[in-house]
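Posting this for the archive.
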Amino acid sequence: MTRIVLAAWLALTAGAVIAQGGYPEQTVRILVGFSPGVAPDITARLLAEKLSATFGKPVVVENVTGAGGNIATDRVAKAAPNGFTLGMLGNGSLVFSPSMYEKLSYDPLKDFAPITQVFVAANVLVVPSEAPAKSLQDLVKHLRSHPGTYAHAGVGTSQHLAAEVFKSMAGVDVRPVAYRGTTAMLPDLLAGRVTLSFANISNVMPPVREGKLRAFAVTSVQRSSAAPELPTMIESGYADFEAVPWFGLMAPAGTPQLIVERLNRETSKAMAQPDVRKRLTDLGLDVITGTPAEFQSAIEREIPRWARVIKQLGIKGAE
């Protein structure tokens, strides 16, 4: 009996090693819940290029937009746990949505195998260049007598929550206008058809530099290296204000540990390469790779913290 058990264990171990050694045997997809050209898409494409070179097999990015990234997140959760379907998933879907929806089609703590966090960014409070407000104080004063609108990249995104926190703290009346990602909302923002936005730094700083938008502050705790001249919301008088987007690589729950470990190793190597870091730094994104356990702990830690904020502000997702 001992020999049979030992033989079975050796067979399973050998099979796992062979599986890891042969992975990936086919194309790997990285699902992104937002449109092309935004931070998670750009980062996923940089990663896919590096992984393709390492694996000798295609790694492609598939944009599955809608519901603030939740549609893509759901598809990853329900995919076969074989390492061929991954997701560049963000805190909007993994941390905010559980407290915003009574029914969510996935469980962020049970339905995924975390691989590594990848990057964190800042949002920037911007207004059209023709807006009457020349400062954040001007904007608040204007909004108190002239209710407005704010554009965001989807219900449950950090942009959405940043605006709701600002609305509450500043005591202003601004109504949300949802879009399928930052690039989708830029035309209306640039044209002045919406009053303001807390938008991803990588997408709005180019038009800010061109004089097409006016920026007032960033939503991170510290100033961004991509726009060091901009104060934080905390520096601007909004105590403890922080609402930033982060994204990480996820696989479906049940994905073999050896595959998760290899993906973690290779992703960390790819994100450490100088050309990748420079590209992301230029966009205002900070690389934050780590272990799968650290990624899981970050999600577990942030869900209750944001649940309190979401409940206090009464923020709900569209059912």
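The radius of gyration is 21 Å. The longest helix spans residues 292-313.
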